[in-house]
Amino acid sequence: MLPLSANENTSGKIALITGITGQDGSYLAEFLLKKGYQVHGIIRRSSSFNTHRIEHLYQNKFTHQEGATFKLHYGDMTDSSCLVKIIAQVRPTEIYNLAAQSHVKISFDLSEYTAEVDGVGTLRLLDAIRTCGLEKQVKFYQASTSELYGKVVETPQTEKTPFYPRSPYACAKMYGFWIVINYREAYDMFACNGILFNHESPRRGENFVTRKITRTVAKISLKQQEVLELGNLDSKRDWGHARDYVEAMWMMLQLEKPEDFVIATGETHSVREFVEESFKFIGKEIEWRGSGVDEVGVEKGTEIIRVKVNPKYFRPTEVDILLGDASKAKRVLGWSPKVNFDELVKDMMAADIELMKKNPMA
Ligand code: NDP
Ligand code: GDR
């Protein structure tokens, strides 16, 4: 079983996180610093600051356990030479590959770039480990995804469910998934896939559906906005909390042998239910009228339209329902989610109301 006690020895553990500025990267960095890791992250050059999710980590040193350090390196998943240089310099014991063009809808517009970063980028990183001669020392985590299941052939989905990707994003991640397994088998590397179902938080990117809903409903409650425009209200997702999910990533790398795991809550809810739950938080009930692109959500007891369907948010091919079975993770890792659907919505709504009160322009 796993060395999961609170006192486990993490001295000498060096983590390298790609995608550290993203939702998961920021929670994972926090988690590892609390354990005393030396944490290194790769950030991209951008024309304005892109480190808002991790600023507290180099300012609030008190969150770190003694011995923990935090360092950022400029790099990009499209640039092999920088990946080799960073790995040679850092000599990590664990690598978490979280960097990705992670938006499914946008992957239809940026299809080639998404393949470069999410697919070939994974290969570049694995090859960089080998170039540095560290393939027997490094444990490698790949951020795989429930989007691989795509057009669903069975529910709930397990590690054995066949894949049917439905977007350039999912196709790129499919390459990432298999190249990890291939390098594991070909070079005896410790490399594993976490097949993570959707996970959200107050740090979720603003153009993913959950955060878009909680931000807009928060603005509606403060009279800063009137209407929420969405695409497909009927798609169903297995939504968990990002903080729980980064812990599972770490647990996978503490095993003696690499294995792939589904990480999910085992509950599925529609976008429509997420909307209803968010409005409930601000004391409003939504009644649905009409159908298809003409469907609207009306505030109960009034004639005020609060939700509209806008076809511009539809996808050329949709993933209708995701529902994960994480029993292997429970059995082997001892992992189970701590935050349920209602608590997730409440956490995100409370945070967005605070944010919009402080800064209505956010
Ligand atoms: P985010 O979109 O919040 O973060 C993505 C990160 O990747 C950011 O740090 C981003 O940098 C970085 N990045 C993007 N392109 C490049 C590049 N070319 N080179 C280097 N870094 C790059 O995603 P999440 O945190 O939500 O997800 C983390 C990973 O897990 C992703 O790989 C995602 O596909 C996968 N995943 C996510 C799930 C979820 O529900 N959240 C579920 C299953 C898998 P910048 O900040 O500069 O944009
Ligand atoms: P997803 O997340 O595609 O599941 O990918 P997203 O929140 O973008 O969409 C979930 C569902 O909501 C529907 N939807 C809308 N989506 C967005 N973004 N905006 C809208 O206005 C809207 N209206 C309805 C979508 O059609 C979809 O069915 C996320 C990402 O984090 C991936 O990186 C990750 O791999 C998967 O989760 C698991």
Automatic annotation (TrEMBL):
Record-level Gene Ontology MF annotations: GDP-mannose 4,6-dehydratase activity
InterPro entries found in the cross-reference section: GDP_Man_deHydtase, NAD(P)-bd_dom, NAD(P)-bd_dom_sf
Sorted UniProt keywords: Lyase
Pathway linked to the protein: Nucleotide-sugar biosynthesis; GDP-L-fucose biosynthesis via de novo pathway; GDP-L-fucose from GDP-alpha-D-mannose: step 1/2
Cofactor(s) this protein requires: NADP(+)
Pfam families for this protein: GDP_Man_Dehyd
Xref: SUPFAM superfamilies: NAD(P)-binding Rossmann-fold domains
Name of the protein: GDP-mannose 4,6-dehydratase
Gene: putative GDP-mannose 4
